[in-house]
Amino acid sequence: MSQDIFVVVEHLREQVADISHVMLAGARQLSGSTGGKVMAVLLGQNTQGLANSLAADGVLYVDHPSLAEFTSDAYQLALAGLIQERSPRAVIFGHSSIGMDIASGLSAKLGFPVVSSCRNFTADGKFVSQICGGKIMAEGELPAPTALVTMVPGGYKAEEGNQPPAVETIAAPALDNLRISIKQYIEPDTSDVDISKEAVLVSVGRGIQNKDNIELATELAEALGCAVSASRPVVDQGWMPTTRLVGKSGKRVKPKIYLALGISGAPEHVEGMSDSQVIIAVNTDSNAPIYNIAKYGTTVDMFDLLPVLTDKVKQAK
Amino acid sequence: MPIRDTFWNIPHWAEIAQYVAAFLTMAIFVAGVVRRVLRWRQGRAEKRSGNFWQRIWSLVIQVFAQRRTLDETFPGIMHFSIFWGMLVLAIGTAFATVDWDVTHLFFGFQILTGWFYIVFELMLDILGLLAVLGLGMAIQRRYGTRPARLQNFPVKKLAGDDLYVLVMLSFIVLSGYLTEGLRLAVTQPPWAVWSPIGNAIAAFFLSLGDPTNQTLHLVIWSLHILTAFGALLSIPFTKLFHILSVPTNIYFRSLEPAGKLPAANMENGAGVKEWKQFTWKQLLDFESCTRCGRCQDVCPAYASSQILSPRNMMVKLDAHIWNNGHALHGDVISADELWACTTCRACVQVCPAFIDHVTTFVDMRRHLVDQGSMDKMLQDALANLGRYGNSFGQSERMRAKWTQGVQPAVKDARREAVEYLWFVGDYASYSATLTDITRKTADVFQKTGLNFGILFDAERNAGNDVRRVGEEGLFEMLADKNSQALAKCKFETIVTTDPHTYNTLKNEYAWNGNRPNILHYAELLDQLIASGRIKFSKKLGYKVTYHDPCYLGRYNGIYDAPRRVIEATGCELVEMPRNRDCAFCCGAGGGRIWMDEKDVKERPSESRIREAIALAGVQAFVVACPKDLTMYRDAVKTTGNEKDMLVKDLIELVYEAL
Amino acid sequence: MKIAVPVKFVPDLVEELTIDSGGTALDTSWLRLIINEFDDHAVEQAILLKERGGGQVIVAMSEAEGADDFLFASAAKGADQLIKLTGDFSASNNHALARAYADLLKELQPDLILTGVQAHNDLDGSVGPLLAEYLGMPYVGYVSGLTVAGDKVTVRKEYAGGLIAEMEVNLPAVLGIQAAEQPPRYVAYSKIRQVMGTAKIEERVVADLDLSGGITVSRMFQPEVAERATMIEGSPEEVADKIIGILKELGTL
Q1: Does the pLDDT at position C137 exceed 80?
Q2: What is the CATH number of domain B543-657?
Q3: Helix axes B210-234, B158-187, angle to 10 degrees
Q4: What is the pLDDT of residue B301?
Q5: Does residue C183 lie within any of the structural domains?
Q6: pLDDT digit string (tens) for C41-81?
Q7: pLDDT value at position B269?
Q8: Do residues C174 and C134 touch, judged by C-beta distance below 8 A?
Q9: Residues 116-175, chain C: which have Cβ within 8 Å of B?
Q10: Would you say the C-alpha torsion B141, B144, B148, B154 has a positive or negative sign?
């Protein structure tokens, strides 16, 4: 039984995912009220180097060929033993394609409750979860003795550590009879522009109405010398390629300016763009949630605004 | 004494041969007609009897007087001339044959003698000219002017069918005149002057002398007879069949209100998947099409994208029922064609054969809906309509949100008796850009002292366009819910600003024989102005034009009420070229407003705005439908006419003039 | 192949959500339920698999207002067996629900279990991975496409940023569906009505719910908005000028 907070580090293709740093920041705050250490749990094969960027008090590193790539099978087996052995106060996972695959299974296997969609912890160590599309927050005591938590971004800033933490290598348990194996990765199309590297994004949502209207956004983007991105409905319609998708299942972007056109601001989208420096929202619905995160907003019709704005941008250059 | 020697110069064997040929012709003709009728009978049953005299009267007006055909001048006169010219010649020839080979042969007396014969000859000679004129016009039009609507048939060989008809008819008429001329040239009867055309032709042949002319006569007579029989026997196999199918189609046309769509076929899935699921009357529709293309000329879907041509649909369907190795859906008719229809009914309105294109399209859409095959936008709209009762996907609790701040508070018709139950409709209730107009409507009603109320969250989309999309089950559910809500309210009249709502409430809801008075607000305003309850304090003095909504005008015949209201507000009304029953659709009907636009060249609403802009000095484009307001406010922007043309709802004029 | 799809209803976000007087839960008197959209995709994916390779589709859900309609709609789409768990689910959580489904599925022995990868009201994990553990089956979530071959299923698992991993999973397995290979189909009302006449919903009584592993909420609230956007008013020209100003200020123009 310890008061340590474990953070299961998420990494893919030799890169630590942003959410890992967010979780570490959350764990740091939580450890203030529980009084334990922040321990990063890193699973992999020859990935010890990834520990260097983690802002943790220590890293528990498990190395095994079956952990070279993420599979819920191997991860769960490796983690179950470790959690039982060390009895941390909490284990934080990402509320993501990796964390969600294992947290619930471990809860069922170990009998420890799991808290979903945790956005942040309160000063007195309670969890605050964001549910119902961001419309409702649920707060409660962190279950004891060990709580499993899946964490959404938004509550903490992702920051790397100043100095490499101490790494303790742990022997992997037997990882036999695995039922999941990875065949291959299919890389996202990289021939298109990388929207996560743009300083300005003109982003279109459902309000664009049809494929032809995307031309209006493209013209503005061309005038500004930037790219057009989109929210899920636009990509689902096939009006824009997946490479331009911003949000949970797409890219996370941090431009200086994010011009959101006809985007309502669903949490899945917000997750991908909330770190933008300045968000300007154009939406005729003055109640759209996008205005809760945007710095500037306007309810003028984008079809009126876009041609005028494009002209003015051209003149200003 | 002048008599008709019908078989002059015809050897006896030829006369016999003619009768043998005639019987063969009749046999083939009958077999051909029977073959067609048996095809129709493979369709679903549909009751189209009753109202005998009304049906006979439409035959008189539409067939013999060619009423609708004459709506277009050149093609009208052209067809009228061919129709009457050929009809008279055919009857005359038959009469002469009967006169000689029946009455004369068996009973020894002739009708065609003396003065009567002379008048008969004169009539035929002159009316035959009508046919010549009509056929000349037709040849000039089809091969000279070549209007677009007569080109590019989806079934290529039909161009040959068209040519065949003109060649045959022209040859019959010309060879008839030649036969007559040659007969007169040889016999030279004193009454020849009463056949002026024949006599003139005879003058040409006189110099050839007798044996030549007699031989020539026999040859041309034979050709004339053979062509005539050929044409006759080909009737059931060529375009000539319209001579029979069109009058039949007109006789059996629907006498129901235009706005009442027939119920869906529910056997083996909803709607029409295979041709035999069409009703016999729909099959008759396909066989009545003469490809005149009037429907294509007025079709907003064709004008905007050319995806759909009602003419081509009929041509393809007709070809399909005879050669159906292909799938009706997909191979013959594409989903894009079906979804392109706005159900504006302009095609039905102009069709001289009284084909009902729209019910056929809707029946086929019903199958697509049954298969769940539709674009994502429409699917979302239908799912929202099913769940929330509106296409906006908003909670029904928000339906009456627009009433917030309206003073005095809008009455809840479910709680207290009202005189007028205002069925607000989706667009007027939910569309953020229209609530201002909705409030103005409430304001006008209140200033007039109208005792009115609304259904608040008990109202659902009335279902007019849901039905036209082809989602019959959802329509029934919406209609049930509305009927139940209305049944609990006490009111005298239902009023709505939405022509689509108006149409389905008036024509399609069951009401169990107890239909309340249903008014469009244009009618109500007109009544209130006439009775003096609305008194205007100013004359607006604007020069405006008015757009007839399809479901108010073409579907329900309401053209004058809105015009009277406009004039009462002191506006000068200037008509667009396409007005009243010829009004051009905005493009939003039949569920189009819920669908993705496919590659459009010019939106129907844009074409309409350009039509209005072309009118000198017109300041405002007045509409009487919430969807029109949405469509045309967009269209003035996209055509760059925002500064030159205001789009105004009828209620705005009334509000301003009060 | 036998495919089971356990689904659940969630609060409809179109309706305004309110907190009950106790302050720890949603006010159910105003609540309207709707199918969890990921579960809807799971049903669609199961039907697609059936259409592609044959098999049997079982849709199961717990009792709720509208459950029958949803089950019949699934049957109209092509589901073969409809199961409704009855009992008092008012205090249920995902652990309890997963246990109830596990009991049912142990009996039905499907080859493949598809369920939505998550639901927006999940507070104690998600049903899919819990169920997998209770049944001792492997689990992969965020799946947006799959092919079954023999006793293995190859899945496409989505990661953030558009990266996709192709994984091979031994059957029987539980998969958390992120998106079906095509959006859930529309099913006409007349079809649903037709199915109502023929399809049967089997009811299974769930006597006791085992809530262990769940969590306790001590306070539920609506997030207060930190700071709403500064609204730019005026004509399109004026708004455009202001936006130009912001662009210049940040050195992006």
Answers
A1: yes
A2: 3.40.50
A3: 150
A4: 95
A5: yes
A6: 999 999 999 999 999 999 999 999 999 999 999 999 999 99
A7: 84
A8: no
A9: none
A10: positive
Q: Among A60-74, B46-60, B444-458, C238-252, where is mean pLDDT lowest?
A: C238-252
Q: Which CATH architecture has domain B257-370?
A: Orthogonal Bundle (1.10)
Strand A136-140 to A127-131 pairing = antiparallel
pTM score: 0.90
**Which of B269, B372, B394 lies nearest to residue C185, judging by beta carbons?**
B372
Structure token digits, residue B625: 């439908």
pLDDT tens track for C93-106: 999 999 999 999 99
Work out whether strand C33-35 and strand C152-158 pair parallel, antiparallel, or are unpaired. Answer: unpaired
- Which one, of A140, A177, A135, A134, lies nearest residue A152 by Cα? A134
The pLDDT of residue C226:
65
Nearest Cα residue to B453 out of B411, B393, B414, B395: B411
Neighbours of chain C (3+ CB pairs under 8 A): A, B
Chains that touch B (3 or more CB pairs under 8 A): A, C
Rg (CA), chain A: 22
Domain span at residue C34 reads 2-205
Instruction: Label residue A293 by pLDDT band (50, 70, 90).
Output: confident
Candidates A13, A97, A189, A222, partner chain C, best to mutate (most C CBs within 10 A): A97
Domains observed in chain A:
5-170 (3.40.50.620), 195-316 (3.40.50.1220)
**A285 — contact with chain B (CB < 8 Å)?**
yes
Domain-located, residue C216: no
The number of domains in chain C is: 1
C88 domain-assigned: yes
* Nearest residue to B289 via CA among B397, B184, B154: B154
Which tokens in the block code for residue C206? 């769930």
Question: Which residue matches tokens 């159910």?
Answer: C28
Residue showing tokens 């159900």: B343
Dihedral class, residue A158 (left if φ above 0, else alpha if ψ from -120 to 50, else beta):
beta
pLDDT at B1: 66
Closest C-alpha to B175, from B146, B144, B216:
B216
> Which CATH architecture is the domain B381-530 placed in?
3-Layer(aba) Sandwich (3.40)
pLDDT digits (tens, 9 = 90+) for B563-607: 999 999 999 999 999 999 999 999 999 999 999 777 778 899 999
Min Cα separation A57/chain C (Å): 27
- Residue B314 amino acid letter: M
Query: What digits encode the pLDDT tens for the residues A235-250?
Result: 877 788 888 999 877 8
| Min Cα–Cα distance to chain B from A210, Å | 7
Least confident of B226-235, B254-263, C13-22, C132-141: C13-22
Tally the residues of chain C: 253
CA distance linking residue B438 with residue B426, whole number of Å: 11
Q: SS3 for B524-563, per residue? A: HHHHHHHCCCCCCCCCCCCEEEECCCCCCCCCCCCCHHHH
Verify whether the Cβ–Cβ distance C215 to A107 is below 8 Å.
Answer: no
Instruction: Please indicate if any CB of chain C lies within 8 Å of the CB of B263.
Output: no
Rounded Cα–Cα distance for residues B8 and B10 (Å): 5
Closest among B453, B516, B449 to B487, alpha carbons compared: B516
Q: Name the most confidently modeled range: A225-239, B202-216, B492-506.
A: B492-506
d(CA C165, CA C168): 10
- Amino acid letter for position B131: A
User: Could you tell me if A287 lies within 8 Å of chain B, comparing CB atoms?
Assistant: no
State the DSSP string of C115-175. Answer: EES--TT-SS--HHHHHHHHHT--EEEEEEEEEEETTEEEEEEE-GGG-EEEEEEESSEEE
Where does residue B41 rank: exposed (0-12), middle (13-18), buried (19+ CB within 10 A)?
exposed
The helix or strand, by DSSP H or E, that contains position B193, with its residue range, turns out to be none
How large is the C-alpha radius of gyration of chain B?
30
Looking at the domain assignment, is residue C221 inside a domain?
Answer: no
